[in-house]
Specification:
The complex is a heterotrimer of chains A (294), B (430) and C (276). Chain A has 294 residues and is mostly helical. Chain A is built from 12 helices and no strands. In chain A, helix 1 packs across helix 12, helix 3 packs parallel to helix 7 and helix 7 packs across helix 9. The longest helix of chain B is centred in the last third of the chain and has 16 residues. Classes of the chains: A mainly alpha (294), B alpha/beta (430), C mainly alpha (276).
Chain lengths: 294, 430, 276
């Protein structure tokens, strides 16, 4: 090959990439590194400037009960939302992946919550959960059940938020299952039917394994979402009562913007980054097999 | 429209690193002083409209001063936004922020004391014209940093119809903790359709708690803002009482009670008594479909409530002209006539004696005596919890209160923990 | 357990249809309730009455209490500007990755994909600092900037470009097209479904984004709808439910209407984007 043309290829490649590269470095790579550096410095105020403190921020994080609480909450939030959403999503996909009256309306009903902003969803659900005057308590009062303080009780606040999140997300995941189901040859179903296999058997032994790659994909997305989505806390609980519904990213926000402790916030962010890195590795090794599918 | 276009263009140009000077400032801007201020709203009602109206009135009287008043959300949001703006190069010159943000603002070196701008004897007299109790949260190190504006105390709203139905004297509100409990028991209906009372415990739980502990003759912090008294026996006792209202006497729902929806609960008759900011008064007056009363909070060892609400602050990053203009605006917004009108429109207190001497407010109080309850209560009032590292210290107390109310910790253990946290945070400031 | 016969499958078909409908009604009911509350006066939000009179008062009240039209305009500007930038930046980068095997391209691609995991939401603290030093706090550009290079978009477009037949490129080259000519005449038109899919996903994501805009905006002139709604309806302000419902509907209406009109495209786009 012509040497100058060869060189031009490299130059052109990089020129095309430059705008994206600048933006990505400025808003992804640089801040990632800066976060790690900042986590090694103390909180600075005008009166007492920031100084290098080594791992002191990590030590106080280790000793910070709220940190452990939000981590624990995040875990429960993920465990509460993800399996339920996935089961619902598969059910929804199976339900609408056939000819039936009103199919497009049903599909729309499942999918619409996905289109709404979380902040609007939280507004609507705040009204449902509100004690005594809220919709849930009003309905239960018809049956003589007295009101419950859904968001004010540490035992029910996280489940309440989980239910709302499942409502919002199940329809989103349904889409991916629908797409996957469209690739399942109809002959399989016909064959199972002729063989006299039960529907449950067909699902368990044929469909579910075929849907496995989709499930993994959805799983990773759902886990990511459970760490990134905290919008609803601003409206519903502000993390309360007593941090019972606080999540890691919201705590990062509080530390940085309410307490002005950007360095502690950076320390918490490092933990979040580490969790995401672990997930990236899991995805890399688990989803690798998926490539053969399609 | 033009404005957005300008904004978008400005941004794009900067983003693209072009060095073309941005044409934008009109030639007339030279003579004008532009002020930006943030302000919060923590209680319902169309308060933004009222503030906008006052600011418009000011600009009419002072055509050379342009004021941009920005509603920023709750008190927390207002502080975040104002301080963020300082760092971002588009600073505000003054703002209404939480009276308790004082130490944080001083530590950030964000504000100036009014002693720096007050020069004339007349100005000095102005500084002395406000209720001293309302100045407590604005004064430290011998200087005045905050001027009271939307100030409140906690008052007790009660449903007189419910009192009558329960066989209680509607003109005699409970004046002690014991009376409160016994009235509460009579007012609570066993089917859950009406509670005896509600004290909100989200949003600003430490504030309500400041009242209870004061009533138990215990203040929550010292004047230098570097020591708290969370684990003092009287403090723990006060928290125990709060918890007992729900779990022992059963006159209040257990768990936390939402600050934002409480007023609705009261208006809907779901609770016969509520403790809330006096800033709700005018809305309650407009919307209550029953006969209601307003009273001072009851006493245990004594009566007590913290003051609350927002003060005016002037930021350090300001030119002398901006400071003078800011002073003008603050004086306008807090002058007796304005303060009286503000009080009538919202329920917030007039900030000085002369506001209550204003003829219109006098007339209003005559027809609606409850408008003066918050002021009368001032003589029992104390400063609101405010320390260095306020955000964190407050959060520690809020969490402790909520954990006690929801039963995850005993009041004693919760307060001990909160005190330990506060000690750790404040050690460096002693 | 009995073995289900062919007849059983039919019976279950009916059952499934019923189940699908019940679930659908359950799923849509919160939204229907919000609609109901928005069009009735405040007292009926709490005391349900099917014959309550309809009113537009809540919308009027919401609009008079906060500048939702302005917020809507801000959101519109944000989304349009952001999507255009994403498309330009993404097309160029994707073209480089798909057709130029340049030095370090594999490493660069891996670094781009990092953003799929570490999204700008997570780096709010540092990104705020960067934006402040660029003097872009409280600008619409500032809301969009961290998202303008979208790893997701680059990835999707690269896939699309890669599947474009080489012969077409050769043909265009013979006709005398240069690098950009080939990109614009061959690759971009053929990747139209990908553009549509990415566009819809991006619009709905940024229309709904809240945390970063909340942090970076300070004033009415820049606040998008979500932030305006968030501070309008914060529980502290104790505003009427019906008015909040009306405000909520106002904020979601444009996107919701677009979705209902172009449902198929939306669903297919999400599907398409997810499978890739």
């Amino acid at each position: 090959m012509h040497p100058s043309r060869n060189l031009m290829r490299h130059v052109h490649g990089w020129l095309l990439l430059t705008p994206a590269a600048i933006l990505l470095v400025a808003f992804t790579h640089y801040p990632t590194i800066k976060t790690i550096i900042d986590s090694l410095f103390s909180k600075g105020t005008v009166i007492r400037p920031s100084r290098f403190v080594g791992l002191a921020n990590y030590e106080s994080m280790y000793a910070d009960p709220i940190f452990w609480k939000v981590l624990y909450n995040n875990l429960w939030f993920a465990l509460g939302t993800i399996p339920t959403s996935i089961i619902l999503a598969i059910s929804m996909a199976l339900l609408v992946n056939r000819a039936m009256p009103g199919r497009s309306f049903v599909r729309m009903a499942y999918f619409t919550p996905t289109i709404l902003p979380m902040i609007a969803v939280a507004n609507i659900w705040l009204f449902f959960y509100s004690p005594d005057i809220g919709l849930i308590d009003q309905i239960s009062s018809w049956f003589g059940i007295s009101g419950h303080n859904w968001l004010g009780d540490p035992k029910t606040v996280l489940p309440a938020i989980i239910i709302m999140t499942v409502w919002k997300e199940a329809g989103f995941f349904m889409i991916f299952y629908l797409a996957a189901l469209q690739h399942v040859p109809p002959e399989l179903r016909e064959a199972a039917r002729l063989e006299g296999a039960s529907r449950w058997y067909f699902f368990r032994r044929v469909l579910f394994p075929l849907l496995m790659p989709t499930t993994l994909f959805v799983l990773i997305n759902a886990v990511l979402n459970s760490f990134k989505l905290v919008d609803h806390l601003f409206v519903l609980t502000k993390g309360g009562p007593d941090n019972a519904s606080n999540l890691l990213l919201y705590y990062i926000f509080e530390s940085a913007f309410s307490y002005f402790d950007t360095n502690y916030a950076a320390t918490l962010t490092v933990v979040l980054l580490a969790l995401l890195a672990i997930m990236a590795l899991v995805q890399f090794f688990l989803l690798d097999r998926r490539i053969h599918y399609r | 429209m033009l404005n957005i276009l300008k904004k978008t263009l400005t941004g794009t140009t900067m983003a693209a690193c072009l060095s073309i000077a941005v044409a934008g400032t009109p030639a007339t801007a030279r003579a004008d002083t532009n002020l930006t201020m943030y302000y919060p709203v923590a209680v319902g009602g169309p308060l933004t409209k009222i503030v906008d109206g006052m600011v418009a009135g000011f600009m009419k009287e002072n055509p050379s001063i342009n004021v941009k008043a920005i509603y920023a959300g709750n008190y927390n949001d207002a502080r975040i936004k104002a301080l963020a703006a300082l760092k971002s190069g588009k600073p505000a010159q003054l703002s209404v922020m939480f009276s308790i943000d004082l130490y944080e603002l001083i530590e950030q070196d964000a504000i100036i004391p009014f002693d720096d701008v007050v020069k004339t004897a007349e100005d000095k007299a102005w500084l002395k014209s406000f209720y001293p109790t309302l100045m407590q949260n604005g004064v430290t190190r011998g200087k005045t940093w905050g001027i009271p504006f939307q100030r409140s105390t906690i008052v007790m709203y009660y449903n007189k119809d419910a009192f009558r139905a329960a066989g209680l004297d509607p003109e005699k509100a409970p004046a002690s903790w014991d009376e409160l409990v016994s009235a509460g028991k009579k007012l609570t209906k066993s089917d859950g359709s009406q509670w005896g009372m509600m004290i909100p415990s989200t949003g600003y739980p430490y504030w309500m708690f400041g009242a209870l502990s004061m009533q138990n003759d215990q203040v929550l912090m010292n004047g230098a803002g570097n020591k708290t008294n969370f684990s003092a026996p009287a403090t723990v006792e006060a928290l125990q009482f709060w918890k007992d209202l729900g779990s022992k006497y059963k006159v209040m729902p257990s768990g936390t009670i939402e600050w934002g929806t409480l007023r609705k609960n009261f208006l809907e008759g779901k609770t016969a008594i509520m403790w809330h900011s006096t800033g709700n008064l005018t809305v309650v007056k407009k919307k209550a479909k029953f006969d209601f009363g307003v009273a001072m909070l009851p006493a245990n060892k004594r009566r007590g409530t913290p003051t609350g609400g927002g003060n005016f602050y002037i930021f350090k990053k300001t030119t002398p002209e901006e400071r003078t203009a800011s002073m003008k605006l603050i004086k306008y917004m807090t002058n007796p006539a304005r303060s009286a009108a503000w009080s009538m429109k919202t329920g917030y207190m007039g900030v000085s004696q002369s506001a209550y001497d204003n003829a219109k407010l006098k007339e209003y109080v005559k027809g609606f005596p409850y408008a003066a309850v918050a002021r009368d209560q001032l003589k029992y009032a104390t400063a609101e919890l405010s320390t260095f590292q306020t955000g964190r210290v407050r959060k520690a107390l809020d969490d402790a209160i909520q954990s006690a109310l929801t039963g995850t910790k005993t009041p004693e253990a919760a307060m001990k923990e909160a005190q330990a946290t506060a000690d750790r945070l404040l050690k460096a400031y002693r | 357990m009995s073995v289900t016969t062919s007849k059983g499958w039919n019976f279950y078909d009916t059952l499934e249809t019923v189940a699908a409908w019940v679930l659908a009604l359950l799923w849509i009911s919160p939204l229907l309730y919000a609609f109901w509350a928005a069009f009735h006066s405040g007292e009926y939000a709490i005391h349900f009455d099917i014959f309550a009179p309809l009113t537009l008062e809540n919308f009027r009240e919401a609009l008079s209490q906060a500048p939702f039209l302005r917020y809507g305009l801000n959101t519109f500007i944000l989304v349009t500007m952001l999507l255009s930038a994403q498309l330009v930046v993404g097309t160029l980068a994707a073209y480089a990755f798909a057709r130029y095997r340049f030095f370090g391209s594999n490493v660069a691609f891996a670094l781009v994909l990092m953003q799929l995991m570490i999204t700008p939401e997570i780096l709010i603290v540092e990104n705020y600092g960067t934006l402040a030093s660029l003097n872009l706090v409280d600008t619409i550009v500032g809301i969009g900037l961290p998202y303008m290079a979208s790893a997701f978009g680059i990835f999707l477009l690269r896939q699309a470009f890669k599947s474009t037949p080489k012969e077409l490129e050769e043909a265009a080259r013979l006709e005398g097209c240069g690098m950009f000519g080939i990109l614009m005449k061959v690759y971009v038109p053929l990747a139209r479904p990908t553009y549509l899919a990415f566009g819809l996903v991006s619009i709905s994501h940024h229309w709904n984004n809240f945390l970063w805009p909340l942090i970076i905006t300070n004033s009415v002139e820049t606040r998008p709808l979500t932030v305006g709604l968030g501070i309008f309806a914060s529980p502290e302000s104790g505003i009427d439910w019906s008015i909040i419902s009306a405000a909520t509907l106002l904020s979601v209406a444009p996107l919701l209407i677009a979705f209902l009109l172009f449902q198929r495209q939306f669903v297919q786009s999400f599907m398409y984007a997810g499978i890739k």
